[in-house]
Amino acid sequence: MQLTETLWSEAEKQTADSAFQLAYSRETNALIEQIRRQASSLTAVDDLWSLHDYLSARRHELDGKYDNRYPTLIFVFAQLLKEGWLSVEDLQGLSNEKLTKISALAKM
Amino acid sequence: MQLTETLWSEAEKQTADSAFQLAYSRETNALIEQIRRQASSLTAVDDLWSLHDYLSARRHELDGKYDNRYPTLIFVFAQLLKEGWLSVEDLQGLSNEKLTKISALAKM
């Protein structure tokens, strides 16, 4: 499967950028909601450090995952599809070839 | 001023341990309250990362500050007195010599 040399048209780049931002917004909003919930029930300092550890790990994970360079976007979208942050509908506008690759990778 | 070789009686150690725990509890409870408050108004991901940065810095600061080895406790108590996490009353039970040293350092 040829993945890294895929060309992106300008229209596809716009679709990709929007989908990328949408997924990032969904996932970070969910994280914000979770942190708000966890923080509201904080009573012990050990829980505070656990919250900090969790936030450190999630930030590191998100920094690594949301790589918006076009050669890697196929993989990024596959992961986001797999995790439920994107649906195939959110990626409409990409070529069928790209959608097929993304869907196939998401099932792995 | 001779500080590092100060001897601590068993009774003084008990006073010191209690005061140390009291200050730690006060400061971490204040931090928990602050984080709960900040988290409750989180809406943007940049604010979440700011909260994380703040928590990282405070954790690092607290880890360094709360050093309960007896040779350094005079300095630790002086700082806690200066910052308001302890009062001179909380340290009653220590020798007058130690209290004088702690109070003098707290004013620096």
Walk me through the structure.
2 copies of one chain form a homodimer. Chain A has helices spanning 10-40, 45-65, 70-83, 96-106. Chain A is mainly α and 108 residues long. Chain A is elongated and about 50 Å long. The model of chain A has no long low-confidence stretch (mean pLDDT 94).
Gist?
2 copies of one chain form a homodimer. The first copy, chain A, is mostly helical and 108 residues long. Chain A has helices at residues 10-40, 45-65, 70-83, 96-106.
H/I helix tally of chain A: 4
Unreliable stretches of chain A: none
Task: Indicate the mean pLDDT of chain A.
Answer: 94
Proportion of beta-strand residues of chain A:
under 5%
Strand-pairing-aware structural class of chain A: mainly alpha
Percent range of helical residues of chain A: over 70%
List keywords for this structure.
71% helix, 108 residues, elongated, homodimer, mainly alpha
Topology:
Two copies of one chain form a homodimer.
Chain A (H helix, E strand, L loop, with lengths): L9 H31 L4 H21 L4 H14 L12 H11 L2
Helix pairs in contact in A: 1-2, 1-3, 3-4
